[in-house]
Amino acid sequence: MKNIDLKNTFLKFFESKGHKIIPSAPIIPENDPTCLFNTAGMQPLVPYLKGEKHPEGKRLADVQKCFRTNDLDSIGDTTHHTFFEMLGNWSLGDYFKEDAISWSFELLTKHLNIPVNRLAVTVFKGNDIVLQDVETAELWKKVGIKEERIAFLGEENNWWPNMELTGPCGPDTEIFYWRSNEEIPEKFDPENENWVEIWNNVFMQYNHESDGTFKPLENKNVDTGLGVERVTAILEGHTDNYKSSVWKDVITKIEEISGLSYDDEKNTRAMRIIADHIRAIVMISGDNAGIKPSNTDQGYILRRLIRRIIRYAKKINIDINGNWEQVLAKIIIEKYSKYYSELETNKEIILQVLKDEKIKFNKTLEKGLREFEKATSSLENKAINKEIAFKLYDTYGFPIELTEELAIEQGLTVDTEGFKEKFAEHQKKSREGATQKFKGGLASTGEMETKYHTATHLLNAALKNVLGNHVHQKGSNITAERMRFDFSHNSKMTDEEKQKTEDLVNEYIQMAIPVEKLEMKKDEAIAQGAEAMFLDKYGDIVSVYKIGDVSMELCGGPHVHNTSELGHFKIKKEEASSAGVRRIKAILE
Fold it and tell me: Which runs of E-coded beta strand occur in 269-392?
């Protein structure tokens, strides 16, 4: 099963089945306040899964850059990653279960040469609302999966997104691979960890109505996701993702820099974490959204990842003051820039972000050491309590292991159980607070969100008029209550400039300009002066939204039909977002 170019094989296969290959969307989602990152291939396609016409047609395939934080504590095992690449094929109201299942089976067994005997599947077992997905199980049997290799599981495993969320939804079927040298059991037990999920096919066949009912969709969609890292390891015969060609060069370099072996169990987890996180750091800081380390949102995650690799580098005897992180980052940039050109474009930014944050954190570590000395100098019972241990972790980034090491040196003990309790409380609060930020899924595109989406186009046009043609959109965030718009500009706007901009947007609204959706070749759209935030993410055929002579932008929608529908536009705040980027917060009244 070796020497197969997985990404190319997947895309060529689905191209042969009439799919158009579309580029990856940026890792930072546009206009989706429900998620800090694109967590799955479907996220950038939400408008089209909801029924909007895609300019490239009804059959699509892609490699999508994804990032998830819910598995952060699992990083260091053989299968989990923060950043990962997801291969996907999509049917937007075209083919459905039979074609999706037969093609999945054909690709895996005929083109990737995976033995049928190593495959198993899960199917939705049904509940008191929706019937068991017998059709899918029968289709798997038809292509060659034995009955004992089919497991029926509940909604928590085989329903997407979940039973509570309204909107398009449906059962899914997950494909598993026996990743072990042990004898393959005849009967599939999903609880056995040797069965590793490699591909998920979601069948969006219902709409969950607001009254609680599930009605069949007129246009049924297929949404699939296959993990590049896991399947590459399988094709190369590894039970450890980090021994595959995806990671080999980075792990080898970490071994070289540290002078230690990956195969020594004392080093394995730390090396995996460094390898995983350095790739994620490069992808986030190399995104055109211009994310920098900070204490909120994507910047907080970026900061946390950088600080984590520094801690683990220290653990495996790497001189953290050396240029090790630059060396590792350059390997990732060189390797992935052929797929994602923005990494080469933003190379210097990536390296500077790493360097600056490392210097800051090294200072924090020094402060933490001083705090440790201070906190332990007057201990009566030679025990570091849970409050001290947690403060060292939360404020100074000290992992409990570092506190324990320092304690041993000074003949002290640490209340590690108490620390774990406080850490669990902290995690629970963090998860609760981040639920909306990380839930992903079908972002809300109600009436107000649609209005705000159109308003960003008018604001972009007005800012160019008031401030100059150097203004370009750098990002936006929309909810039903307000809009946030980031744009390139080096100085704070004056009160006069803000008023002019606001007046101009309202003038466009009062002009009652029709909003036209056009489809054309990308080159033609650019030649006509159409704007695009991330040009690389669009395919050859694009949707262009034209608002009279005011605005012309490549965009996925959704939009109102006429500017008169927007109401009154009001700027609430203008502030700095990051270097060379300003931010406007505004509402429609």
Answer: 383-384
Nearest to 20 by CA among 525, 467, 540: 540
Instruction: Show the low-confidence residues of the chain (pLDDT under 70).
Output: 1-3, 31-34, 71, 429-444, 533-537, 557
Sheet order of strands, 473-478 included: 473-478, 483-488, 581-588, 569-578
The neighbour count for residue 78, using CB atoms within 10 Å, is 16
Sort strands 83-92 and 214-227 into parallel, antiparallel or unpaired: antiparallel
Q: Which token pair is 324?
A: 């090790």
Return the H-helix or E-strand segment holding 552. Answer: strand 551-554
Beta-carbon contacts of 99 under 8 Å, excluding residues fewer than 6 positions away, are: 17, 91
* The pLDDT of residue 162: 83
Q: Is 33 left (phi over 0), alpha (psi -120 to 50) or beta?
A: alpha
CA distances (Å), origin 378, targets 370, 416, 419, 581? 14, 20, 20, 48
404 to each of 194, 269, 341, 415, 485, how far by Cα in Å?
34, 18, 44, 9, 46
pLDDT tens, position by position, 491-543:
999 999 999 999 999 999 999 999 998 888 888 888 888 887 666 667 788 88
Of the chain, the end-to-end C-alpha distance in Å amounts to 60
> What is the predicted pLDDT for the residue at 442?
43
DSSP-derived 3-state class of residue 414: strand
The count of other CB atoms within 10 Å of the CB of residue 502 is: 19
CA distances in angstroms from 537 to 24, 222, 287, 432, 514, listed in the order given: 6, 21, 12, 32, 27
67 forms bridges with which residues in the sheet? 83
| pLDDT reported for residue 440 | 36
Q: Is 219 helix (H, G, I), strand (E, B) or coil?
A: strand
Return d(Cα 381, Cα 32) in angstroms, integer: 52
* DSSP line for 142-203: HHT--GGGEEEE-HHHHEES-SSS-EEEEEEEEEEEE-SSSPPPSS--TTSTTEEEEEEEEE
Chain centre distance of CA 248: 23
What is the three-class DSSP state of 213? coil
Distance, in Å, from the CA atom of 262 to the CA atom of 268, rounded to the nearest integer, reads 5
Contact between residue 489 and residue 446 where contact means Cβ atoms under 8 Å apart: no
Contact 232, 245 (CB under 8 A): yes
- How crowded is residue 395: how many other Cβ atoms within 10 Å of its Cβ? 12
Does this model's pTM top 0.85? no
